[in-house]
Amino acid sequence: MRNWDSFANNDLLGNPTVNDEVCPQEKDYQDALKVADKLGIPLFRIDFVKEYWDYVFSYFLAEYKKGRTPNPDIFCNKYIKFETFRKFAKEKGFDYIAMGHYAKKIVKDGVCYLSKCHDQNKDQTYFLSQINYDQLKDSLFPLGDIDKTEVRKIAHDLDLVVADKKDSTGVCFIGERNFKQFLNNYLPAKKGDIVDVVSKKVVGHHDGVLYYTIGQRKGLGIGGIKGIDPKSWFVIAKDVKKNILYVAQGDDNKYLLSDRAIIKNINWINMPHPDGIKHIGCKFRYRQQDNFVNMRFVDDDTVELIYDEPIKSVTPGQAAVFYDGNIVLGGGIIDQIFYLGNEIKTTSYED
Known about the structure:
The chain has 351 residues and is α+β, with helices and mostly antiparallel strands. The chain has three domains: 24-181, Rossmann fold (3-Layer(aba) Sandwich), CATH 3.40.50; 189-249, Adenine nucleotide alpha hydrolases-like domains (SH3 type barrels, Roll), CATH 2.30.30.280; 254-344, Translation factors (Elongation Factor Tu (Ef-tu), domain 3, Beta Barrel), CATH 2.40.30.10. The chain is built from six helices and 15 strands. It has a six-stranded antiparallel barrel. A four-stranded mixed sheet has the order 6-5-8-7, with no helix packed on it. Strand 2 and strand 3 (111-115) form a beta hairpin. Helix 2 (49-65) packs antiparallel against helix 3 (72-91). The longest helix is centred in the first third of the chain and has 20 residues, at 72-91. The mean pLDDT is 91.
């Protein structure tokens, strides 16, 4: 499956492979050919570059332009892997698609449920929260009951060329990039001031507010300021119009906290509206432990979450994923966050 063309998509700045004789996608294809030959199975090569741009990357850019922090992997799963690719497989006569995600499909009384995997350190259900029931029903997750070390052992036992291949990282189907330079290919930004939200003083300069995310600590270039506490600085808000990045010191500062959120673009995997489930587990970012929240339904596309305890760095544009124990109910996109009754304007800071 080829979903990205670096030259057609102007992916030049920040691309460490742009001058390589063989692009990463071609290397992956050659590896897949060797594996298919070893296992004695046919290999199809399909191109979804346009679909990826239209359904995933355009959304990714639009969200960053607003100053939000999107998660393209979630929409890559929803629109490409579990939809465009699934339809291709159906047209070829296949009953199921087998995916490499660490997740489980449980079938009970003829009904399919998406569940966390056996190795919860690797669990990837967060990224599957926007798939629908038909997509789940047509999918298999062979890695759901085994851990990563066993997967590599199986590959070694079969003498597969990918046995020691490193895990994929970076943006879905694009790969590792110098993120600021990569984003600058599509959303050129200008330098501006970094302002301490407490003192209102300029404490540094940023490369463009679009490049930073709420709760970010590394890469701010602030430190060693005479007369200022040496505690770490954290991004707490971005004013896109004024091009100001707001920061505060200490990972315990109140500006990182929220206790309520409005979630939009809701997707329920099994049902349109899970009546009776009001107190649920929720992840606001990948690898985060489940946080417990009370859910209030606002309309068919919106819910309000009231946290049992305040949570740090809940970020508009990211996904909120809902759990009933290990079962994934669905999820949505974080739209607004609040603390002590006041909305936190993370992308247009106000006192």
